């Protein structure tokens, strides 16, 4: 770090990428630079903005003389590099180069972190450099800070997050207006909450990258995106939402990371899936495109961090909080917490992962039916929390069963056997229940 | 700081006070010390626990050989002093001595901070020492961290907090079970959520100390507890709660700090009072003894920090997060953010403080009554958001008027004039409305 430590209180900031977030970062640097200098003694000087097309139109506050198409050159002359290009390359190469040379990197690139985290952290270690990524998870919500620094004195047992605003908006519209998934998706696209190709959001991949980052921080263990089994929200129907309301729940797409125990060994499980959350749980009150992350820890108990998960200004605010911290360290010494993987907990599979489910069945309306279904649960060692039976219009019965906590494996076996039961016409849905 | 900077990675921790929180701090230090060392390279060594009565019974994990009644001596040999004595003296003298000698102080003492903050910060400055106080506001909720470090890149416009668990528990019980204030208070006392003398909580003084600390951090301006006008919750009735539900609100005791503008000059206002919060606002979903602080900022938008506001283990968790940060700085360099008062914003009075109110009136049921009431609002320049009129059992009308945003001064003049109106039998209640 010594070579990049400024001696005059001036911290040279290089910005890679000037899209929606980058442009807001430029605005905030210009508007608040003097304030930060007054507070911390660190003068942030924006020394360049690397973009693909230096001739393209920009917001009026973006100084054209700082634009450059030489990203590598810019990395070479910055104390702090803000990476907002997104995607893997050239972001990966530029970030590695910056870290190895001792420059601090501030990034919002969740895909890069979830796919190449260990390589980035190793480069930071090698260059004695700091890597910040508050903006990579839940936008403006300071949950990376919370997990990495503020909860450093506690033992975290679980993290449950609404970390994708697009899917939360869609599910919220389905729940409150009775829209179908397709209707809600179209509306989200019209309003700019969802992309033309919504795959990364609605199939849960974006949430999985964030789940991997959160789990790594919470459990001091390396978790990559490929370690996270994912279920998206495409299959959810307006009827599912209505049924959820009937049973006092709200449907949310959750990133869930938990400390688990199997055969006496501690491990973790990380998942992304839709889940029914009790209406009184704080995550149930997270509406629209907002994000929130609940952290359960041994001593602090339940904490929640809530705020805007996306958008130019909110994400830029998270970037700038990292830049200000980085600048303070450059001027006053100290450094960001380094990657912490000392725990190296194994990833546990379905046999060790605790879960609850709601199962909806269509059944023959005949004597012995409920006994047969309940028998399957009993034989698999899964106890039942609640049962609701209704006669549907076509004369057959519809049964909704919420289990107690069991293992994923036992719950999967239960559903497989239910599907084979002669009385069961159809397994309509199987949905996780969280947050009880 | 140099003289107190350990060279061997061992950080000597001295604990002042060993009550509910202190005892949990001892437990966490013993249980997690090795984990923290693995993460940060800082070995925390508890070198002494100062208590008034060394012979008194203690939790089994408290090592008796560390107990001492020589608090001053302990302060002299610690790198990090944890102050959990509470109250003003001897806490103030000990904390000042520690800071002036360059030791880091971690305290949960909101009364001391709100009454003697400037003196403590000056001592920290003089000793080049760090002062941490996460546990002083909202227990385990990392809002001091959030305001002091994480939002350092943004401009905060308002802070609204449920920062007293006792009053939130009482109001929640009144709202959900229809209890009177006295019934809910008795229940809180039986369950240990309220003290035998509940004055500090129910009259809002505890919340006012926290409001002063939050406002100082949010607005980089010195605010003491005497700067905070306070209204408690003793006057709130079961009828008020029922009426709140009717209009889609929930009653909460809030600490409110806002950036204000008067005659072109920026300033701030800081208040503690009960307020009606819309049912969809995230603060409305904060139940029981939980705390939550909403921060509104220019770029990040609305953030909320939520969690347990009191209790031994949650408060100890907040203390330990500060201790771990302090130890990292002791070993790796850097320091906590110093007091930031560069903004020195003036405290604005009722003329510049924006507010909304709900006013409930009992009126003669006669022609011209509503026109007269509405006329008063109009003449004071206060516009009306909603009106609800009901005929009560005794034949007179009851009117509930929610105003738009105006100034406190205009709203007070409006109520004073309404009380003089011949048609108005009684001003039943005047309640603030927040969070719209």
Provide a descriptive summary of the structure in words.
Chains A, B: Residues 358-435 form the ACT domain. Chains A, B: It is an enzyme of class 1 (oxidoreductase). Chains A, B: Belongs to the homoserine dehydrogenase family. The structure is a homodimer of 436-residue chains. With 436 residues, chain A is α/β, with parallel strands linked by helices. Chain A is 36% helix and 26% strand. Chain A has three domains: 2-139 and 312-332, Rossmann fold, CATH 3.40.50; 151-308, Dihydrodipicolinate Reductase, domain 2 (2-Layer Sandwich), CATH 3.30.360.10; 354-433, ACT domain (Alpha-Beta Plaits), CATH 3.30.70.260. Chain A has 13 helices and 17 strands. A nine-stranded mixed β-sheet of chain A has the order 11-10-7-8-9-17-13-15-14, sandwiched between helices. Chain A has a six-stranded parallel β-sheet with strand order 3-2-1-4-5-6, with helices on both faces. In chain A, strands 12-16 form a two-stranded antiparallel ribbon. The longest helix of chain A has 21 residues, at 20-40. Chains A and B meet through α1, α5, β11 and α11 of A and α1, α5, β11 and α11 of B.
Tell me the layout of helices and strands:
The structure is a homodimer of 436-residue chains.
Chain A (H helix, E strand, L loop, with lengths): L9 E7 L3 H21 L2 E8 L16 E2 L2 H6 L3 E4 L7 H10 L3 E4 L2 H18 L3 E2 L10 H8 L5 E7 L2 H13 L3 H10 L8 H4 L2 H15 L18 H9 L2 E14 L2 E14 L11 E8 L3 E8 L3 H21 L21 E2 L1 E7 L5 H11 L4 E8 L5 E7 L2 E2 H13 L3 E10 L3
Parallel strand pairs in A: 1-2, 1-4, 2-3, 4-5, 5-6, 9-17
Antiparallel strand pairs in A: 7-8, 7-10, 8-9, 10-11, 12-16, 13-15, 13-17, 14-15
